[in-house]
Design brief:
heterodimer; A: alpha+beta; Rossmann fold; six-stranded mixed beta sheet; 28 helices; elongated; B: mainly alpha
Amino acid sequence: MLKIKKITIENFRGLRLPVTIDFVKNNKSTSALIYGRNGTGKSSIVDAWEWLHNFYIKNLNRDGVLLTDLPHKASGGINSYISVDFQHTSINSATATFNPKKITTPTITGEYNEFKALSTYPNYLRYTDLNDFICNKRQAARYEYIAKYFGLEKFSLLQDTLQTTLNKQTINLQNLQAAFVTSRNTINAITGLTIVDEATVVKFINTIAGKHKITAITTFKEAEIVKTALQKIVQKNPVTKELIEWQAFQKRQNQFYPITTAKANCIGLEKLFADLKQNEESIKQLILSSLYEQSIEVMPKLEDKSKCPVCDETFNGDLLQHITAKHNSLSALNKKKTEFDAKKSLLEKQFEGISRKIAAIEAESSSVVLAAFQTFFDDLTTINSTLPTLIATLKKQLKDLVTLTISSDTAIAKIDTIISNETASKKLVADKIAALSKDETTKTLAQDYTNISNIVDNFKSHSINKEKVAYLKSITDNLQIFFNSLTTYIQTEIQNTFTAISADVVDYFNVLENSNPDIKNPALKLITGKDKAVELEIEFVSEKITPAFKFLSESQVNSFGLAFFLAAVKRFNKDFKFFILDDVVNSFDSFKRPRVAQLIASRFSDFQVLMVTHDQIFFDTVQRNFSEWQRYKFTAWDYATGPKCKPSKNYLEEIQSYIDDDKPVTAGQTLGKYLEWILGILCENTKTPIPYRVENVYTLSDYYNPIAKRFREKLKLPNTQHKLFRLLDEFETGTIFRNYCVHWKNEANQFTTEEIDAIFEKWIEIEQIIFCTSCKSFVHYKNISSTNYVRCDCGTVNLLDQTHYTSTR
Amino acid sequence: MTELKDWIAEFKTEKPELNDFVTKLEGFISDTGFNTAKFEKAVETGLQKKEEEVKKTFTTDAEN
């Protein structure tokens, strides 16, 4: 089994000087706990761990952090590494060092590849990962989370990018098919037939060729010969030539019109611009609007509702109300800004449309048309000269616009002129065509030439598109088969894996949720017809509920997210039992946090864990429960050196150390804080009522006396004495403890080291029988079917067991 | 755990008729997903090639 001895990281993200996390204590392999406030560099350790495995850090990558940003800035990319030392028969170490010459490929040393072969599945979970699972409303995001922790991240990533490609190529294919159909329909309209093939087209061309005494052709390759010959005949007949040119222009003219006026939209936009610019300062505040919006959404989910989620400062008063008021005050302005953006975008699209229409008509080569429509083409040139500038202006953001004067631009007036001339222009062209079509021979020749030109061009387009469609269809069909097969594989793997680990998921969920008997049998359901959608189904009071996320509380979803991760960790990486939890307890209600520690103690005792937290109480809980772990405090951080890191003591070690150093006052005060905490847990566990104090100031006696009484009531058996009773009696003996209970917070009341030591020792004796070292829980009281239970979570410590009693007869 | 490359190899065995296609596709697949841009460029080149081929059939004899 691969075990970690130590992890060393230097010059990576926020870590400058080498930071070493030991996983050996007293020559025994163990786990590690890191506590530090936000910004002390804790998460850099998890980042380095992910980078060691993948050579990139996904969530940082998503946020635009480049690989070049990973080494500590002051290091210049030199000597930036993570190194892991192992206890194993053949794997001694694995190191990845940042390679400034090839940033995507770090230099790997030691038995890196052998280590990677044992650490294939993701074994780290961040608060943000769990939060994504819980808060993200997209089903696809949950699918990705599950795929990742089931070891299918690369498959899911491929599925994702393939889907994008497939969508794009499908649209591409549809466009080609549409062009193919258009050319086919045009040919059909010319021939009057429904078949489009070379023989039909050649036959049609030959019919026209025959009419004009042009040699017949046998293949389409010769079509241009007929077209050229006919063109020569047309050239000899100026009236026909002109008629053809007018007919061609008429076609382009009909595609050019209608054009919609832009003036009204321009004036409307300028008015909105003027209004918004009058409130320039407020506009700057609009940036805050989206932050306010997100804060309003996220605040009800926060535990501490007085701390601003944007600036992290504490607010005196109702923060949610305050932010909502701020948001509302900007909503009118926001509405106007949204309207401005929409109008701006509409106008931009309109100008781009006009630009495209001009490009299609302006390349006129007929001298007769150019002469007759000189003003029209001059106007197009004028519009073209400023339209790109206007489009560029409209692409700018409001904040970057100093002035906005579009409506007075010459192009706008010219567009209106062209619009007002539409009817007259069209009439002019129609009259010209009518006048030139009076002679039947001329008309027929023009028609024949137009038909030959069109059928030749369209058959070429038809042939090209036919080949392109066949080529692209083959690719998209094959890609679709590949994609479908990949999707089926992922979905089957997800379902199979979930089935295999579902018992563990339920078990862990129950530990975290304290065995809620009404919630059971979670199952994953893949949504039919959707490639990346998965829903959780849950059985609630014998009824199947889907989606469970709508039904479960946020805290229960949290528990599921963590249960998924831990169950996957347990199932995979069987030769490397290790995982990292980075601040995940943050997602849990405070009363549930100790259960995370209990879960690890009871189900993952054979694992090495790296627990990172910024929660002081959770840190104390884990320190207390896992005294054998290595424990570190990141007390501060600075740019030049990185985190200030020091080994940490738990309460019991700290108290003992003060007693050893003959510091009774500090020892007494630390013991008081500790007893206050533990007695609180015991009162909760045993459902012990305590006196209510309106001033909210409690002495230790307020907790201790009711709990001692409770134990005596619930453990009392006739003619016997419980061992705990004796210990409680000894603990309470004399006045020292009673005095201590009332006065421990008062530094003026001096207790001797011996007195504190006596209280401490007695309490440790009590703890030894009411705390389970296996599941790391204190005993709790339960009454099930009129039977009393006073036992720990796993049942190892059972205070109603006969072994705790001695006969008094 | 099945590696992506192993799955692709298995897919080729199950669908031998797609062997050539998948072999070409593998050139665009890496651990970070599917190289969409490179693939699109390759498809565009393929389409362009098809167009050139068809265009040749229109003009060869005519030019001669």
